[in-house]
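Deliverable D2.4 — example input (structure tokens):
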């Protein structure tokens, strides 16, 4: 049942640890092993395949559009070629096996089988009932997938739905702010909460020259200063982007209600902290340098 509007950042605070739990599999050796078993070995092909598989055997244009901040030429190196190696259905099955192994390794079998895990799955799935499909291709494609029976996989599935729902809305906010994919990355990194440039170059396909050119465009708009730090105008723009994203993503958390959101946040924070402590993420992933 839908409830009254919540404080704007409540949904963001719930989403963040859920997103962290979702994203752990991208850095997991289990994912590489499972995809290699079906013939997909290049790290970038693995990344594109597992996130895009829910869309079906799409071409590079659809992936670039849906992912927003990847260089199209990098996407085109691996899509649609990856679908000639493994079908989307095979990729999705391999991803599920990898997520199962990853969560068990990071959290432990006792946590995976706990009442808290089952409760978190129920709450997250209930929140996802409030999501909407319109103009949200990655969310909508994942919403077509069946809900796994095991609670830890059901929680991961729901976290994925909530992540992609917010992410699709976030792209609308970035477009409204007139930030292209690379400019969005540069400004996010400048906040200190985004990926380091080295990770952007490795995973998104951009070069240092392209990064510097984007920074130059942002300086021209008064969003970065001479040291590539966000100006007051740049900080205000990033804050408005997040606020607009919150507005576009409020429905699932209003649907769950304040008490449910608070409890889901508590549980998700615990799981995310445990995963991080177990080494889920590279130490040099986040930062300005």
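Example output (designed residues):
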């Amino acid at each position: 049942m839908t409830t009254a509007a919540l404080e704007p950042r409540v949904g963001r605070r719930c989403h963040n640890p859920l997103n962290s739990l979702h994203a752990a599999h991208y850095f997991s050796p289990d994912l590489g092993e499972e995809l290699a078993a079906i013939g997909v070995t290049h790290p970038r092909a693995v990344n594109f395949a597992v996130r895009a598989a829910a869309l079906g055997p799409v071409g590079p244009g659809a992936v670039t559009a849906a992912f927003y901040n990847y260089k199209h030429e990098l996407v085109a190196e691996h899509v649609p070629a990856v679908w000639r190696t493994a079908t989307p259905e095979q990729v999705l099955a391999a991803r599920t096996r990898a997520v199962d192994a990853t969560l068990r390794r990071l959290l432990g079998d006792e946590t995976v089988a706990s009442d808290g895990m089952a409760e978190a799955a129920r709450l997250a799935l209930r929140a996802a009932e409030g999501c909407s499909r319109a103009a949200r291709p990655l969310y909508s494609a994942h919403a077509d997938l069946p809900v796994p029976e095991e609670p830890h996989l059901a929680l991961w599935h729901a976290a994925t739905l909530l992540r992609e729902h917010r992410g699709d809305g976030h792209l609308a906010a970035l477009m409204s702010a007139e930030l292209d994919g690379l400019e969005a990355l540069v400004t996010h990194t400048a906040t200190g909460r985004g990926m380091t440039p080295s990770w952007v170059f490795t995973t998104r396909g951009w070069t240092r020259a392209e990064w510097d050119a984007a920074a130059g465009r942002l300086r021209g708009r008064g969003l970065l200063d001479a040291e590539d730090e966000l100006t007051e105008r740049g900080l205000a723009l990033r804050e408005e982007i997040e606020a607009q994203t919150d507005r576009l993503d409020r429905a699932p958390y209003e649907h769950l209600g304040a008490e449910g959101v608070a409890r889901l946040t508590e549980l998700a924070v615990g799981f995310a902290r445990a995963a991080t402590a177990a080494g889920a993420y590279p130490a040099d992933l986040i930062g300005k340098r």
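The two ends are 45 Å apart (CA to CA).
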